[in-house]
Amino acid sequence: MLKKVLIANRGEIACRIARTCRKLGLEVATVHSSADRFARHVREIGESVELGGAAPSESYLNIDAIIAAARRVGADAVHPGYGFVSENPAFVRALDAAGLTFIGPRAETIERVGGKANAKREAARLGVPVIPGSESGMTDPAEVLNLVRGMKLPVLLKAVAGGGGRGMAVVDTLDGLEGRIESAMREAEKAFGNGELIVERYLPQVRHLEVQVAGDGQGHAIHLFERECTLQRRHQKVIEEAPSSGLSPRLRAAILADAVKLASGVNYRGLGTVEFVVTGEEHYFLEVNPRLQVEHPVTEEVTGLDLVELQLRIAATGTLPLAQTDVQCTGHAFEARLCAEDAAAGFLPATGQLQVVDFSRAGVRIESGVDSGDEISPHYDSMIAKLIAHGADRESARRALVAGLRESTVIGLVTNLAFLHELLEWPETRDATFHTRLIDERHAQRGVVAPTAPPLEHLAAAALHWLTQRRAESPALGCWTLGDGFTGWRLRSGPIQAAPQPTLVLKAGAAEWPVRFSMRDDQGSSVLVIGEQQVSAALQSLAAGRSLLQCGGRALELTIRGDAGQVELASALGSSVFTAQPYLGGDAGDAAASGQLGAPMMGKVVAVKAAVGETVVLGQTVIVLESMKMELHVTAPFDGSLSGLRCRVGDMVERHQVLAEVSPV
């Protein structure tokens, strides 16, 4: 039996694996980078070894450092989680040579099915239907270019070693094809250490299904039913569910059988996922993920199994601890990936400090790797938490997840919380008529989150919070200061009315609301005129950083953070962020209009596409950044010439840092 497990990963999955290890009586330790010294997985697991620098290549991908860490803590097994070294056969062989147990498939199995090209050949050999396209991976951009030119568009470029949409691009025009191929290869090389691509016929409006399989390594395998992973943006999953809805019994049986056929045919050991695309009543093999999946909790919820425990038992005994007849699917489960990203800006990731992270009222299963005060780093992915809901049927599980999102609070960074809430209410989600391009198409048409005015209660709370902050900055004025700390310059006689002139302007995007205040009445309420709306409101501080708003006869609990310049708040009505300016305070200049090219987020400069003095046109890429394993293109805001360059390849830059200037010609 295993005694101590080293978890070679970070974040929520490291915390998740540790809980099961301890449940089984196993000792556990983990690893971290220099950027993660105080991360939640380090704090929660309690024993961790620093591997190296913040970059994954210096830490979480450093095989020698991981093995040294395992020896240092006295581990006899290593669990890789997902990502990083979880699909690296060289890592598995290094563990074997060191006498350590890898909790996953054998190295030769990963080589056979871990890469998309090899997996496709194995599937075809076993009679599993595959998508037409290249039979092997390509490292020469010219070879990829020639193949694409000879195929009917659209086609799909896919990184052989990839996952999560990295190194993947849909090609529907030959314009700029060479640059897109080079970008996909570069992204794949940086994310996976392998820039090899395959090319396949692109199938529009398909569904993406995956089957959880488990094998003993001796040719015996079972399935744990399927998951629906169709709701994606840029080939990255957003919401998953189990089981899939709308599959005919014949199609479901065929997909499950093909997944088991493939796992058995390669003598798969441990837990893995066989992925398919579905169009109509046809299904095609997509890839194998020889590891634990991010979305594994939905399978756990409908089967009642602990998949990490299953991995550990197979690794320890070399046998499957259950038969196919032991696996039952009960009810329905949904999972949503809550990330620090701006859905309205093309899902641009956000980095920085999370001031408040609170799921105490969510009422659903939470898997998270961060707490209040933790940082979202540009070196890793932007996921904050996974919210998982289970119900007797699909609709009850969907409603439970909607409620859980509504009761979740994240303050400090922009998140996709509002988008997830809206996505679950889309008609295509409610009746399961979605396809993998739905979110991207909706975003291209109008943006994925319908613009809505913030609730009046949020405006009132933000205004009162601002006023409290401003009064706290001013010294008391003796007899002119009321006992509650608000300054009044009028006698308490007659009705309490708002001042004739606005004191404050609240802004959210292009919208703004001038605010007029009255003094407080005997009950502590003020009359506020917000735009054209008048309301009586009072804000009271509560414990644990919460506040209670009394507004127009309605009580609402909120979490509020910010200063006199910006207010961010969350309640059961959602989240809002306002900039706050004293009336007639003036506006900041528009950097883009002035020709300044700012960094959209913290990242590393990987390419500079123009030199000072060169002519550039609107939309032309000037600088390429890498952040969170993705490339961001900083483009010219208008036709002109590059008049200044403030960065070099290799520089780490901060969000909003000016990288270059463009001057009109």
From TrEMBL:
<dbReference type="InterPro" id="IPR050856">
    <property type="entry name" value="Biotin_carboxylase_complex"/>
</dbReference>
<dbReference type="Pfam" id="PF02785">
    <property type="entry name" value="Biotin_carb_C"/>
</dbReference>
<dbReference type="Pfam" id="PF00289">
    <property type="entry name" value="Biotin_carb_N"/>
</dbReference>
<dbReference type="InterPro" id="IPR011053">
    <property type="entry name" value="Single_hybrid_motif"/>
</dbReference>
<feature type="domain" description="ATP-grasp">
    <location>
        <begin position="120"/>
        <end position="316"/>
    </location>
</feature>
<keyword id="KW-0092">Biotin</keyword>
<dbReference type="InterPro" id="IPR005482">
    <property type="entry name" value="Biotin_COase_C"/>
</dbReference>
<dbReference type="Pfam" id="PF00364">
    <property type="entry name" value="Biotin_lipoyl"/>
</dbReference>
<dbReference type="GO" id="GO:0005524">
    <property type="term" value="F:ATP binding"/>
</dbReference>
<dbReference type="GO" id="GO:0016874">
    <property type="term" value="F:ligase activity"/>
</dbReference>
<feature type="domain" description="Lipoyl-binding">
    <location>
        <begin position="588"/>
        <end position="663"/>
    </location>
</feature>
<dbReference type="InterPro" id="IPR011761">
    <property type="entry name" value="ATP-grasp"/>
</dbReference>
<dbReference type="GO" id="GO:0046872">
    <property type="term" value="F:metal ion binding"/>
</dbReference>
<dbReference type="InterPro" id="IPR005479">
    <property type="entry name" value="CPAse_ATP-bd"/>
</dbReference>
<feature type="domain" description="Biotin carboxylation">
    <location>
        <begin position="1"/>
        <end position="444"/>
    </location>
</feature>
<dbReference type="InterPro" id="IPR011054">
    <property type="entry name" value="Rudment_hybrid_motif"/>
</dbReference>
<protein>
    <submittedName>
        <fullName>ATP-grasp domain-containing protein</fullName>
    </submittedName>
</protein>
<dbReference type="InterPro" id="IPR011764">
    <property type="entry name" value="Biotin_carboxylation_dom"/>
</dbReference>
<dbReference type="InterPro" id="IPR016185">
    <property type="entry name" value="PreATP-grasp_dom_sf"/>
</dbReference>
<keyword id="KW-0436">Ligase</keyword>
<keyword id="KW-0067">ATP-binding</keyword>
<dbReference type="Pfam" id="PF02786">
    <property type="entry name" value="CPSase_L_D2"/>
</dbReference>
<dbReference type="InterPro" id="IPR005481">
    <property type="entry name" value="BC-like_N"/>
</dbReference>
<keyword id="KW-0547">Nucleotide-binding</keyword>
<dbReference type="InterPro" id="IPR000089">
    <property type="entry name" value="Biotin_lipoyl"/>
</dbReference>
